Amino acid sequence: MLTFTPGQDGYETEIAGFQTGVPSRPRLVVGATNTGDVAEGVRYAAEHGLPVSVQATGHGLREPATGVLISTRRMTGVSIDPARAVARVEAGATWGAVIEAAAGHGLAPLSGSAPGVGVVGYTLGGGFSLMGRRHGLAADHVAAAESVAPDGTLGTGLDGVVTSLEFGLFPVTTLYGGALSFTTQETALRAWRDWTADLPDALTTSLALVPYPDLPMIPKPLRGKHIAQIRVAYLGSPEEGERLVAPLRALGPVMDTLTTLPFTKSGTIAAEPPNPHAYVGDNRTLSTLSEESVDAILTTTDAPVVQILDLLGGAYAPGRHLAPNSRYAVRALSDPADTSGQEKLFEAFGPDTTGRLSSFVYGQPL
Ligand SMILES: Cc1cc2nc3c(=O)[nH]c(=O)nc-3n(C[C@H](O)[C@H](O)[C@H](O)COP(=O)(O)OP(=O)(O)OC[C@H]3O[C@@H](n4cnc5c(N)ncnc54)[C@H](O)[C@@H]3O)c2cc1C
Protein backbone atom coordinates (compact mmCIF):
# COMPACT_ATOMS: atom_id res chain seq x y z
CA MET A 1 0.00 0.00 0.00
CA LEU A 2 1.33 3.46 -0.95
CA THR A 3 1.07 6.14 1.71
CA PHE A 4 2.05 9.79 1.71
CA THR A 5 2.36 12.27 4.58
CA PRO A 6 2.80 16.07 4.39
CA GLY A 7 6.27 17.03 3.16
CA GLN A 8 6.94 13.59 1.67
CA ASP A 9 7.77 13.21 -2.03
CA GLY A 10 4.59 12.56 -4.01
CA TYR A 11 2.22 14.03 -1.38
CA GLU A 12 1.42 17.21 -3.34
CA THR A 13 0.95 15.28 -6.60
CA GLU A 14 -1.34 12.83 -4.87
CA ILE A 15 -3.70 15.46 -3.44
CA ALA A 16 -3.76 17.57 -6.63
CA GLY A 17 -6.99 17.28 -8.61
CA PHE A 18 -9.11 19.09 -11.20
CA GLN A 19 -10.52 21.47 -8.56
CA THR A 20 -7.56 23.52 -7.30
CA GLY A 21 -9.58 25.80 -4.97
CA VAL A 22 -9.98 23.35 -2.08
CA PRO A 23 -6.88 23.48 0.19
CA SER A 24 -6.75 19.84 1.36
CA ARG A 25 -4.05 18.96 3.90
CA PRO A 26 -4.78 15.35 4.92
CA ARG A 27 -2.66 13.83 7.71
CA LEU A 28 -2.27 10.71 5.58
CA VAL A 29 -2.95 9.87 1.93
CA VAL A 30 -3.52 6.24 0.99
CA GLY A 31 -2.70 5.67 -2.68
CA ALA A 32 -5.04 2.68 -2.99
CA THR A 33 -4.46 0.05 -5.65
CA ASN A 34 -7.17 -2.38 -4.50
CA THR A 35 -10.04 -2.93 -2.06
CA GLY A 36 -7.65 -4.23 0.62
CA ASP A 37 -5.75 -0.91 0.59
CA VAL A 38 -9.00 1.04 0.90
CA ALA A 39 -10.12 -1.12 3.84
CA GLU A 40 -6.74 -0.73 5.57
CA GLY A 41 -6.87 3.08 5.14
CA VAL A 42 -10.44 3.26 6.48
CA ARG A 43 -9.55 1.04 9.47
CA TYR A 44 -6.53 3.22 10.25
CA ALA A 45 -8.79 6.30 10.22
CA ALA A 46 -11.30 4.60 12.55
CA GLU A 47 -8.56 3.54 14.98
CA HIS A 48 -7.12 7.07 15.11
CA GLY A 49 -10.45 8.96 15.14
CA LEU A 50 -9.70 10.67 11.81
CA PRO A 51 -12.27 11.63 9.14
CA VAL A 52 -12.08 9.78 5.80
CA SER A 53 -12.21 11.61 2.45
CA VAL A 54 -12.12 10.09 -1.03
CA GLN A 55 -10.66 11.56 -4.18
CA ALA A 56 -10.67 10.12 -7.70
CA THR A 57 -10.22 12.98 -10.21
CA GLY A 58 -10.93 15.92 -7.89
CA HIS A 59 -13.73 17.36 -10.07
CA GLY A 60 -16.24 17.43 -7.23
CA LEU A 61 -14.24 18.47 -4.16
CA ARG A 62 -16.27 20.36 -1.57
CA GLU A 63 -14.40 20.58 1.74
CA PRO A 64 -10.67 20.18 2.41
CA ALA A 65 -9.53 16.69 3.40
CA THR A 66 -7.94 16.81 6.87
CA GLY A 67 -7.71 13.20 8.11
CA VAL A 68 -7.13 10.17 5.88
CA LEU A 69 -7.55 10.75 2.14
CA ILE A 70 -8.20 7.60 0.10
CA SER A 71 -6.84 8.37 -3.35
CA THR A 72 -8.43 6.03 -5.91
CA ARG A 73 -6.60 7.37 -8.96
CA ARG A 74 -4.75 4.06 -9.48
CA MET A 75 -7.94 1.94 -9.37
CA THR A 76 -8.83 2.52 -13.01
CA GLY A 77 -9.97 -0.95 -14.15
CA VAL A 78 -12.89 -1.08 -16.62
CA SER A 79 -14.45 -4.22 -18.07
CA ILE A 80 -17.50 -4.69 -20.27
CA ASP A 81 -19.90 -7.63 -20.31
CA PRO A 82 -21.49 -7.18 -23.75
CA ALA A 83 -23.97 -10.03 -23.25
CA ARG A 84 -25.53 -8.26 -20.24
CA ALA A 85 -24.77 -4.72 -21.54
CA VAL A 86 -23.09 -3.97 -18.23
CA ALA A 87 -19.82 -2.22 -17.32
CA ARG A 88 -17.81 -2.93 -14.18
CA VAL A 89 -15.42 -0.23 -13.01
CA GLU A 90 -13.01 0.25 -10.15
CA ALA A 91 -13.33 3.33 -7.94
CA GLY A 92 -10.98 5.60 -9.90
CA ALA A 93 -12.26 4.99 -13.46
CA THR A 94 -13.27 8.00 -15.56
CA TRP A 95 -16.13 8.20 -18.03
CA GLY A 96 -13.66 8.57 -20.91
CA ALA A 97 -12.30 5.07 -20.24
CA VAL A 98 -15.80 3.56 -20.03
CA ILE A 99 -16.95 5.30 -23.22
CA GLU A 100 -13.94 3.91 -25.13
CA ALA A 101 -14.31 0.38 -23.76
CA ALA A 102 -18.09 0.26 -24.31
CA ALA A 103 -17.86 1.64 -27.86
CA GLY A 104 -15.92 -1.48 -28.87
CA HIS A 105 -19.16 -3.42 -28.25
CA GLY A 106 -21.58 -0.89 -29.80
CA LEU A 107 -22.61 0.32 -26.33
CA ALA A 108 -22.55 3.62 -24.45
CA PRO A 109 -22.86 4.63 -20.76
CA LEU A 110 -24.93 7.34 -19.08
CA SER A 111 -21.92 9.67 -19.03
CA GLY A 112 -22.08 13.43 -18.75
CA SER A 113 -20.61 16.48 -20.40
CA ALA A 114 -16.94 15.88 -19.45
CA PRO A 115 -15.15 12.55 -20.03
CA GLY A 116 -12.57 13.35 -17.34
CA VAL A 117 -15.15 13.10 -14.53
CA GLY A 118 -14.99 10.03 -12.27
CA VAL A 119 -17.72 7.38 -12.67
CA VAL A 120 -18.25 6.67 -8.97
CA GLY A 121 -18.46 10.27 -7.67
CA TYR A 122 -20.79 11.15 -10.57
CA THR A 123 -23.08 8.19 -9.96
CA LEU A 124 -23.25 8.77 -6.19
CA GLY A 125 -24.62 12.26 -6.95
CA GLY A 126 -27.32 10.83 -9.24
CA GLY A 127 -25.61 11.30 -12.61
CA PHE A 128 -27.19 13.69 -15.10
CA SER A 129 -26.10 12.37 -18.49
CA LEU A 130 -26.27 13.24 -22.17
CA MET A 131 -29.05 10.63 -22.44
CA GLY A 132 -30.69 11.50 -19.11
CA ARG A 133 -34.09 12.58 -20.41
CA ARG A 134 -34.36 9.24 -22.19
CA HIS A 135 -32.91 6.88 -19.59
CA GLY A 136 -33.04 8.77 -16.26
CA LEU A 137 -30.30 9.06 -13.66
CA ALA A 138 -27.10 7.00 -13.88
CA ALA A 139 -27.78 5.96 -10.26
CA ASP A 140 -31.02 4.28 -11.39
CA HIS A 141 -28.98 1.85 -13.53
CA VAL A 142 -26.50 0.61 -10.92
CA ALA A 143 -26.56 -3.19 -10.95
CA ALA A 144 -24.04 -3.92 -8.18
CA ALA A 145 -21.52 -2.21 -5.92
CA GLU A 146 -18.73 -3.12 -3.56
CA SER A 147 -17.75 -0.83 -0.73
CA VAL A 148 -15.86 -0.43 2.52
CA ALA A 149 -17.94 0.64 5.54
CA PRO A 150 -16.61 3.20 8.08
CA ASP A 151 -15.40 0.36 10.34
CA GLY A 152 -13.35 -1.13 7.49
CA THR A 153 -15.65 -4.10 6.78
CA LEU A 154 -16.53 -4.99 3.17
CA GLY A 155 -20.08 -4.63 1.88
CA THR A 156 -22.19 -4.31 -1.23
CA GLY A 157 -23.98 -0.97 -0.72
CA LEU A 158 -23.28 2.56 -1.90
CA ASP A 159 -22.37 3.77 1.61
CA GLY A 160 -18.80 4.28 2.77
CA VAL A 161 -16.01 4.13 0.18
CA VAL A 162 -17.21 2.47 -3.01
CA THR A 163 -14.50 0.27 -4.51
CA SER A 164 -16.34 -0.98 -7.62
CA LEU A 165 -19.59 -0.41 -9.50
CA GLU A 166 -21.53 -2.32 -12.12
CA PHE A 167 -24.08 -0.45 -14.22
CA GLY A 168 -26.13 -0.71 -17.38
CA LEU A 169 -25.03 0.38 -20.87
CA PHE A 170 -27.16 1.25 -23.90
CA PRO A 171 -26.92 0.28 -27.57
CA VAL A 172 -25.88 3.74 -28.79
CA THR A 173 -22.97 4.41 -31.14
CA THR A 174 -23.80 7.89 -32.46
CA LEU A 175 -25.61 11.03 -31.35
CA TYR A 176 -26.92 14.00 -33.25
CA GLY A 177 -25.30 16.64 -31.10
CA GLY A 178 -23.23 19.76 -30.70
CA ALA A 179 -23.81 23.38 -29.76
CA LEU A 180 -25.30 26.54 -31.20
CA SER A 181 -23.56 29.67 -29.88
CA PHE A 182 -25.18 33.09 -29.79
CA THR A 183 -23.96 36.53 -28.76
CA THR A 184 -27.56 37.66 -28.17
CA GLN A 185 -28.12 36.13 -24.74
CA GLU A 186 -31.63 37.32 -24.06
CA THR A 187 -32.96 36.12 -27.41
CA ALA A 188 -31.23 32.75 -27.04
CA LEU A 189 -32.41 32.24 -23.45
CA ARG A 190 -36.04 33.08 -24.19
CA ALA A 191 -35.98 30.96 -27.35
CA TRP A 192 -34.48 27.99 -25.44
CA ARG A 193 -37.06 28.34 -22.68
CA ASP A 194 -39.92 28.27 -25.21
CA TRP A 195 -38.28 25.48 -27.24
CA THR A 196 -37.90 23.25 -24.16
CA ALA A 197 -41.63 23.41 -23.43
CA ASP A 198 -42.26 20.45 -25.71
CA LEU A 199 -39.32 18.26 -26.70
CA PRO A 200 -39.07 14.48 -27.08
CA ASP A 201 -37.36 12.59 -24.25
CA ALA A 202 -34.72 11.46 -26.76
CA LEU A 203 -33.37 15.02 -26.71
CA THR A 204 -31.30 16.21 -23.77
CA THR A 205 -30.27 19.87 -23.74
CA SER A 206 -28.57 22.58 -21.69
CA LEU A 207 -28.00 26.27 -22.17
CA ALA A 208 -24.68 27.66 -20.95
CA LEU A 209 -24.06 31.38 -20.46
CA VAL A 210 -20.28 31.68 -20.57
CA PRO A 211 -18.04 34.76 -20.36
CA TYR A 212 -15.26 33.44 -22.65
CA PRO A 213 -11.79 34.89 -22.08
CA ASP A 214 -9.98 36.56 -24.98
CA LEU A 215 -7.44 33.74 -25.41
CA PRO A 216 -6.04 32.09 -28.54
CA MET A 217 -7.29 28.58 -27.58
CA ILE A 218 -10.92 29.82 -27.63
CA PRO A 219 -12.65 29.54 -31.05
CA LYS A 220 -12.57 32.98 -32.71
CA PRO A 221 -16.35 33.62 -32.80
CA LEU A 222 -16.52 33.11 -29.01
CA ARG A 223 -13.30 34.81 -27.92
CA GLY A 224 -13.74 37.62 -25.36
CA LYS A 225 -17.57 37.46 -25.63
CA HIS A 226 -20.37 36.52 -23.26
CA ILE A 227 -21.92 33.63 -25.18
CA ALA A 228 -25.23 31.81 -24.86
CA GLN A 229 -24.53 28.24 -25.95
CA ILE A 230 -27.36 25.77 -26.54
CA ARG A 231 -26.06 22.21 -26.18
CA VAL A 232 -27.94 19.31 -27.71
CA ALA A 233 -27.65 15.51 -27.54
CA TYR A 234 -30.33 13.72 -29.55
CA LEU A 235 -30.79 9.96 -29.89
CA GLY A 236 -33.10 10.04 -32.94
CA SER A 237 -32.24 10.33 -36.62
CA PRO A 238 -30.07 13.26 -37.81
CA GLU A 239 -32.93 14.34 -40.10
CA GLU A 240 -35.33 14.58 -37.14
CA GLY A 241 -32.61 16.30 -35.11
CA GLU A 242 -32.20 18.93 -37.86
CA ARG A 243 -35.94 19.48 -37.87
CA LEU A 244 -36.07 19.90 -34.09
CA VAL A 245 -33.25 22.47 -33.95
CA ALA A 246 -34.42 24.45 -37.00
CA PRO A 247 -36.18 27.19 -34.93
CA LEU A 248 -32.96 27.79 -32.99
CA ARG A 249 -30.78 27.77 -36.10
CA ALA A 250 -33.10 30.39 -37.59
CA LEU A 251 -31.90 32.80 -34.86
CA GLY A 252 -28.46 32.97 -36.53
CA PRO A 253 -25.83 31.37 -34.25
CA VAL A 254 -22.26 32.71 -34.55
CA MET A 255 -21.02 29.11 -34.28
CA ASP A 256 -22.81 25.84 -35.07
CA THR A 257 -21.20 22.48 -34.27
CA LEU A 258 -24.33 20.31 -34.57
CA THR A 259 -23.59 17.12 -36.48
CA THR A 260 -23.74 13.33 -36.23
CA LEU A 261 -21.08 12.38 -33.69
CA PRO A 262 -19.65 9.02 -32.68
CA PHE A 263 -20.49 8.64 -28.96
CA THR A 264 -16.72 8.57 -28.30
CA LYS A 265 -16.71 12.28 -29.26
CA SER A 266 -19.61 13.22 -26.97
CA GLY A 267 -17.26 15.34 -24.83
CA THR A 268 -17.01 17.80 -27.73
CA ILE A 269 -20.68 18.85 -27.32
CA ALA A 270 -19.95 21.01 -24.27
CA ALA A 271 -16.18 21.14 -24.90
CA GLU A 272 -15.56 22.05 -21.26
CA PRO A 273 -12.02 23.14 -20.32
CA PRO A 274 -9.94 20.05 -19.42
CA ASN A 275 -7.35 21.98 -17.38
CA PRO A 276 -7.48 22.10 -13.54
CA HIS A 277 -8.72 25.36 -11.99
CA ALA A 278 -10.38 26.84 -8.89
CA TYR A 279 -14.15 27.27 -8.73
CA VAL A 280 -17.07 27.52 -6.36
CA GLY A 281 -20.33 26.10 -7.62
CA ASP A 282 -23.93 25.73 -6.55
CA ASN A 283 -27.32 25.19 -8.18
CA ARG A 284 -31.06 25.15 -7.76
CA THR A 285 -33.74 23.05 -9.41
CA LEU A 286 -36.80 24.96 -10.58
CA SER A 287 -40.38 24.02 -11.43
CA THR A 288 -40.49 26.56 -14.24
CA LEU A 289 -38.45 29.37 -15.75
CA SER A 290 -40.72 32.29 -14.85
CA GLU A 291 -40.13 35.80 -16.19
CA GLU A 292 -38.61 36.71 -12.78
CA SER A 293 -36.13 33.83 -13.01
CA VAL A 294 -35.23 34.65 -16.61
CA ASP A 295 -34.59 38.27 -15.56
CA ALA A 296 -32.39 37.11 -12.67
CA ILE A 297 -30.36 34.88 -15.01
CA LEU A 298 -29.89 37.72 -17.51
CA THR A 299 -28.90 40.19 -14.75
CA THR A 300 -26.28 37.69 -13.51
CA THR A 301 -24.52 37.84 -16.89
CA ASP A 302 -23.10 41.18 -15.63
CA ALA A 303 -21.11 39.19 -13.04
CA PRO A 304 -18.18 36.83 -13.85
CA VAL A 305 -20.34 33.73 -13.42
CA VAL A 306 -20.79 30.73 -15.73
CA GLN A 307 -24.45 29.66 -15.67
CA ILE A 308 -25.65 26.33 -17.02
CA LEU A 309 -29.37 25.62 -17.37
CA ASP A 310 -30.40 21.97 -17.80
CA LEU A 311 -33.74 20.73 -19.03
CA LEU A 312 -34.90 17.91 -16.72
CA GLY A 313 -38.26 16.13 -17.10
CA GLY A 314 -38.49 13.12 -19.41
CA ALA A 315 -37.25 9.95 -17.68
CA TYR A 316 -35.73 11.81 -14.72
CA ALA A 317 -37.66 10.40 -11.75
CA PRO A 318 -37.89 12.35 -8.49
CA GLY A 319 -36.32 10.66 -5.47
CA ARG A 320 -33.22 10.88 -3.35
CA HIS A 321 -31.31 12.95 -5.92
CA LEU A 322 -34.06 15.07 -7.44
CA ALA A 323 -36.96 16.95 -5.81
CA PRO A 324 -40.47 16.43 -7.25
CA ASN A 325 -41.74 18.89 -9.86
CA SER A 326 -38.22 19.87 -11.03
CA ARG A 327 -38.28 20.87 -14.69
CA TYR A 328 -34.97 22.79 -14.88
CA ALA A 329 -31.66 22.99 -13.03
CA VAL A 330 -29.68 26.22 -12.97
CA ARG A 331 -26.04 25.77 -12.04
CA ALA A 332 -23.61 28.60 -11.35
CA LEU A 333 -19.83 28.53 -11.24
CA SER A 334 -17.90 31.45 -9.79
CA ASP A 335 -14.38 32.48 -8.99
CA PRO A 336 -13.82 31.63 -5.28
CA ALA A 337 -12.91 35.31 -4.70
CA ASP A 338 -16.44 36.51 -5.55
CA THR A 339 -19.54 34.35 -5.24
CA SER A 340 -21.98 37.26 -4.71
CA GLY A 341 -23.40 36.90 -8.27
CA GLN A 342 -24.59 33.35 -7.69
CA GLU A 343 -25.95 34.09 -4.22
CA LYS A 344 -28.17 36.88 -5.60
CA LEU A 345 -29.23 34.63 -8.48
CA PHE A 346 -30.49 31.83 -6.23
CA GLU A 347 -32.33 34.25 -3.96
CA ALA A 348 -34.16 35.71 -6.94
CA PHE A 349 -35.58 32.31 -7.99
CA GLY A 350 -37.97 32.51 -5.02
CA PRO A 351 -41.03 30.26 -5.42
CA ASP A 352 -39.72 28.61 -8.65
CA THR A 353 -37.16 26.75 -6.48
CA THR A 354 -37.78 23.04 -5.83
CA GLY A 355 -34.40 21.83 -4.54
CA ARG A 356 -30.64 21.53 -5.02
CA LEU A 357 -28.51 18.86 -6.75
CA SER A 358 -25.61 17.61 -4.63
CA SER A 359 -23.50 16.78 -7.71
CA PHE A 360 -23.12 20.41 -8.67
CA VAL A 361 -22.00 21.83 -5.32
CA TYR A 362 -18.28 22.59 -5.47
CA GLY A 363 -15.73 24.19 -3.15
CA GLN A 364 -18.20 24.54 -0.25
CA PRO A 365 -20.11 22.25 2.12
CA LEU A 366 -23.42 20.74 1.01
C1 LIG B 1 -16.33 19.94 -15.65
C2 LIG B 1 -17.37 19.15 -14.91
C3 LIG B 1 -18.40 18.55 -15.62
C4 LIG B 1 -19.40 17.81 -14.95
N1 LIG B 1 -20.41 17.25 -15.66
C5 LIG B 1 -21.38 16.55 -15.02
C6 LIG B 1 -22.47 16.01 -15.74
O1 LIG B 1 -22.59 16.15 -16.97
N2 LIG B 1 -23.42 15.33 -15.04
C7 LIG B 1 -23.32 15.14 -13.67
O2 LIG B 1 -24.21 14.50 -13.10
N3 LIG B 1 -22.29 15.64 -12.98
C8 LIG B 1 -21.33 16.36 -13.62
N4 LIG B 1 -20.31 16.92 -12.90
C9 LIG B 1 -20.31 16.75 -11.44
C10 LIG B 1 -19.56 15.47 -11.04
O3 LIG B 1 -20.36 14.35 -11.35
C11 LIG B 1 -19.29 15.49 -9.53
O4 LIG B 1 -18.49 16.60 -9.22
C12 LIG B 1 -18.61 14.20 -9.07
O5 LIG B 1 -18.63 14.17 -7.66
C13 LIG B 1 -17.19 14.12 -9.55
O6 LIG B 1 -16.63 12.90 -9.18
P1 LIG B 1 -15.04 12.70 -9.33
O7 LIG B 1 -14.70 11.36 -8.86
O8 LIG B 1 -14.64 13.09 -10.71
O9 LIG B 1 -14.47 13.84 -8.39
P2 LIG B 1 -13.78 13.77 -6.94
O10 LIG B 1 -13.62 15.20 -6.56
O11 LIG B 1 -12.57 12.93 -6.94
O12 LIG B 1 -14.88 13.12 -6.04
C14 LIG B 1 -15.99 13.88 -5.67
C15 LIG B 1 -16.65 13.30 -4.45
O13 LIG B 1 -17.30 12.10 -4.81
C16 LIG B 1 -17.24 11.21 -3.71
N5 LIG B 1 -16.52 10.01 -4.13
C17 LIG B 1 -15.66 9.86 -5.17
N6 LIG B 1 -15.24 8.60 -5.25
C18 LIG B 1 -15.83 7.94 -4.24
C19 LIG B 1 -15.80 6.59 -3.80
N7 LIG B 1 -15.04 5.66 -4.40
N8 LIG B 1 -16.55 6.24 -2.72
C20 LIG B 1 -17.32 7.15 -2.09
N9 LIG B 1 -17.38 8.45 -2.45
C21 LIG B 1 -16.66 8.82 -3.53
C22 LIG B 1 -16.51 11.90 -2.59
O14 LIG B 1 -17.44 12.54 -1.75
C23 LIG B 1 -15.70 12.94 -3.32
O15 LIG B 1 -15.39 14.07 -2.52
C24 LIG B 1 -19.33 17.67 -13.54
C25 LIG B 1 -18.29 18.28 -12.83
C26 LIG B 1 -17.33 19.04 -13.49
C27 LIG B 1 -16.27 19.73 -12.69
Describe this structure in words.
Keywords: FAD, Flavoprotein, Oxidoreductase. Belongs to the oxygen-dependent FAD-linked oxidoreductase family. Its cofactor is FAD. Helices cover 22% and strands 27% of the residues. It contains 9 helices and 18 strands. It has helices spanning 11-15, 35-48, 95-103, 119-124, 132-135, 185-195, 238-249, 291-300, 340-348, and strands spanning 2-4, 28-31, 52-55, 68-71, 78-81, 86-90, 142-148, 154-155, 161-168, 174-182, 203-211, 226-234, 255-256, 259-262, 280-286, 305-311, 328-334, 353-355. Strands 10, 11, 12, 13, 14, 15, 16, 17 and 18 form a 9-stranded antiparallel β-sheet that branches. The protein has a 5-stranded antiparallel β-sheet with strand order 5-6-9-7-8. It has a 4-stranded mixed β-sheet with strand order 1-2-4-3. The two termini are 31 Å apart. The mean pLDDT is 97. Bound molecules: flavin-adenine dinucleotide.
Q: Could you give the topology of this structure?
A:
Elements: E1 2-4, H1 11-15, E2 28-31, H2 35-48, E3 52-55, E4 68-71, E5 78-81, E6 86-90, H3 95-103, H4 119-124, H5 132-135, E7 142-148, E8 154-155, E9 161-168, E10 174-182, H6 185-195, E11 203-211, E12 226-234, H7 238-249, E13 255-256, E14 259-262, E15 280-286, H8 291-300, E16 305-311, E17 328-334, H9 340-348, E18 353-355
Parallel strand pairs: 2-4, 3-4
Antiparallel strand pairs: 1-2, 5-6, 6-9, 7-8, 7-9, 10-12, 10-13, 10-14, 11-12, 11-16, 15-17, 15-18, 16-17
Helix pairs in contact: 8-9
Bound molecules: flavin-adenine dinucleotide (FAD).
Flavin-adenine dinucleotide (FAD) is lined by residues 17, 54-61, 72, 91, 112-114, 117-118, 120-122, 124-125, 127-128, 161-162, 272, 359-360.
